[in-house]
Design a protein that fits this description.
1194 residues; translocase; Calcium-transporting ATPase, transmembrane domain; nine-stranded mixed beta sheet; eight-stranded mixed beta sheet; transmembrane helix
Amino acid sequence: MGDMANSSIEFHPKAQQPREAPHAGGFGCTLAELRSLMELRGAEALQKVQEAYGDVSGLCRRLKTSPTEGLANNANDLEKRRQIYGQNFIPPKQPKTFLQLVWEALQDVTLIILEVAAIVSLGLSFYAPPGEESEACGNVSAGAEDEGEAEAGWIEGAAILLSVTCVVLVTAFNDWSKERQFRGLQSRIEQEQRFSVIRDGQLLQVPVAALVVGDIAQVKYGDLLPADGVLIQGNDLKIDESSLTGESDHVRKSADKDPMLLSGTHVMEGSGRMVVTAVGVNSQTGIIFTLLGAGGEEEEKKDKKGKQQDGALESSQTKGLVMSAITVIILVLYFVIETFVVDGRVWLAECTPIYVQYFVKFFIIGVTVLVVAVPEGLPLAVTISLAYSVKKMMRDNNLVRHLDACETMGNATAICSDKTGTLTTNRMTVVQSYLGDTHYKEVPAPITLTPKILDLLVHAISINSAYTTKILPPEKEGALPRQVGNKTECALLGFVLDLKRDFQPVREQIPEDKLYKVYTFNSVRKSMSTVIRMPDGGFRLFSKGASEILLKKCTNILNSNGDPRGFRPRDRDDMVKKIIEPMACDGLRTICIAYRDFSAAQEPDWDNENEVVGDLTCIAVVGIEDPVRPEVPEAIRKCQRAGITVRMVTGDNINTARAIAAKCGIIQPGEDFLCLEGKEFNRRIRNEKGEIEQERLDKVWPKLRVLARSSPTDKHTLVKGIIDSSTGEQRQVVAVTGDGTNDGPALKKADVGFAMGIAGTDVAKEASDIILTDDNFTSIVKAVMWGRNVYDSISKFLQFQLTVNVVAVIVAFTGACITQDSPLKAVQMLWVNLIMDTFASLALATEPPTESLLLRKPYGRDQPLISRTMMKNILGHAAYQLSIIFTLLFVGELFFDVDSGRNAPLHSPPSEHYTIIFNTFVMMQLFNEINARKIHGERNVFHGIFSNPIFCTIVLGTFAIQIVIVQFGGKPFSCCPLSTEQWLWCLFVGVGELVWGQVIATIPTSQLKCLKEAGHGSGKDEMTDEELAEGEEEIDHAERELRRGQILWFRGLNRIQTQMEVVSTFKRSGSFQGAVRRRPSVLSQLHDIRVVKAFRSSLYEGLEKPESKTSIHNFMATPEFLINDYTHNIPLIDDTDVDENEERLRAPPPPSPNQNNNAIDSGVYLTTHGTKSATSSVFSSRPGSPLHSVETSL
């Protein structure tokens, strides 16, 4: 076969290939030639192809490929092409090395302070003052009788340095593994991407990276082009090149006008074949990437993210710094007053190093307070929890593209789902038909049909469908035949086979390149038409599409003899009632198949589609069944039990949609619900001027369960309306599923967008947050479960962490102020910090989800991060721990009959007294970690503990290390070994935590009115509609005429604006979306909500905060969807109805002619004079956005 494909090249006269010999590798084009060719556009490019190669097939000959058969599937040839023209792969930027990550971890302010203190302490410990002066310097060395003890002064400094090293290595390792997981995820997403190419005359799906120059690629609606190429043949092809040029208009491509197709652009309509001319770093996108330094934006986004997180950390560090500064000041004053005022000593020069040593000791105590006050474990907990969930979600068929989507999903209150393929199996079959005046309830026997009807039907179906759609024999004996391509077309081809005819001979007789004109299917037309030239010179048009739309264009219908008879509007209404509605009520999708003949003399204007696709003759109406997936009704029941409303948004007929919704359980008899068609939906939500009003929308969406015959704009309007609505007790969090290119805007707008992995187009996948690898609704339920689990894991960690924080800070602070020495030493604090940060986050963030998570209502947007119950637990446990520790600190030595550790002089050996305090403190934390596993006031804290081996390992491991530290830690850990009895007492007090937990659980939370839920911001404070309107009027005409270059800039702004949602999230809540991604700013909120005011006062700070939906790091990674990309060709009110002109008169005026200006062509049409711009998708996609102040300055 390969020889044949290549031999076809030899038939052409050699005269056409004068320059072939000198070129690389025996191909007729060099890499540089092809690169310069791909930089040209339109007529210029066409001229160059004609001059250099004659035509596109000349170019194919030079590249030794056949336009119809493609390349031979020959490994050596493919490898040779990769060596000469490069691979289709853009190498990513080198990841940071472990040492770079260590260096970054060392930049932490707290650690730097500790290092400095430790080094000073080390230096001073080696200074031995002259003996005779020691008396004059006060009781500095008293207690250090043992020479060895005085020598051991260096140990504390060294121990601090050692523990700093530990912390740095742990942090660096975490960052490193996070980076590795992220890259693994990226490569997994990249491997998922495949593209259709023709090799050896066979259509194959190959990984995008395997494409080579000379491949013949099949492009179709919804593809993201993976390489540059020249179009060989195209049908009605339109490309969105905005990702490269910033132009929002779709560019029409054809082999005779503009054949250049560029990588990274999206196919918005039509289909075709192209020859690949540039791949990888030589393609247009690759060249841009190389200029950026491949993956450069990834680095930037990380830096940006880092800066924001640092900003957030700083606010909680300030609180810690204040506490530690006060501690240090009190200690220094106390020491100075006691030494120089009370004892009346004089500062002697030789005593300076000793006094400085005291000050260093105080400084270190201050730093320990700071270490404990800053909860730097929070980001770690979040990362671990998300990374762990993402890994596990892969097994549940959820491929997570944006980490934050994982946790947002747990708060989802509404899911807007597609019907086809998500709720149904997407294996379609024709089960009813209306042919020749007869309604057949099953497939008719071929003999009952007139040969004329049968022949027309077979031709109409075989020719008027994508030639890539086929029915192949089953892989296994007894299995169902394999459906390849568009499932609706597969059903129709299956119908042809059931009628004992074959579609392949018809296609061979009329190959794809002989088709005269193709109007491909899109969401506006809801039909597809193909024109062929007849032997007599005339033309025949075949059309298929949604029955109620196509029947309006039919004026004739074939009778039982196969002759056309008149088909009046009355007949149509009759047919709708008797044939179409009964089919639809059975849950069938109805498709009308029709044709029209044109004589040779009357060739129409093919660009006037409404004229051409009209006056049709109906051949048949078929009912296609797409059975509901067996597991869907149960999954939907789970969603409803979990407090999530499921809505179906489909392009199907309302009766079909209602029937399927009832089968799925989306609508139940006796409920109060709405099922609307797109047109009726628009009528209800728009005012007289055709503008969408949120109040009207708020009356519709709460009861809406099915939206049928909807356009992509309707889907986006619904999603935006639900998200922006503030009716009801809580704001809604919306998840959306989609598979088509037209779902892009809704997926982008939703809080979480799910794209279909199998049926989904590349455009939909790009716009989504999570890809469902099995296209199944049940996987969404799993995502909800994981999302809630992430949310709970982080709440558990916070509950534990804040208890430790509160206790440790108070103990260190009061202890230091009263006894001039922190009961918990610096190294001990670092160990506690390690337990409560790294280990606890590992233990609590890896709890597996349980079905019981689906039994509670979602939190919604306004839920604070720390609930009342959690606040009760934190304060209750803190009270228990503080009372125990203070008791031990002040009367512990009497109880245990040991020497008091209070007021110990410098360098004195560790005391048993303080070791008991330290040990008791750690024991209480360990048992409290078990308490922290439950955050909703459950009694049984051990429930499911063995299902999480990581938790058990960490608790036992920490306990073992604690024994080692206490018994053998000695001077570095300021510990001295304890007796068995003392250990038992420490354990007894620790177990007391579990008992105390039960006591706290008994107190009803509802009684504790005084407890505030932390994480609530100030009240709602959004802009009114009038203010919004004023803001819009500020955009004057001059600004509307902005040049295209600036539009790109606006896109950037538009993305930053997405980021700004955080401002309003902050205003209203500590809701988890966003809160966690701002590192521990959650905690700064807990400490003090005044930060919000700073947010409001400074726009730029707002601009730099990450948002709550898609993070800054998608700054360049995803194509921006502006709804106006679609408005040019999507009528606001479905004007497919020819006889409803009055409806169209009421429709608003069309969008302004200035179609390049994103600033004004938005989802809502402008008024005629353009005095008041619509809420443009560039400026304010959200109410209350602080961007208004920027608009005018632009």
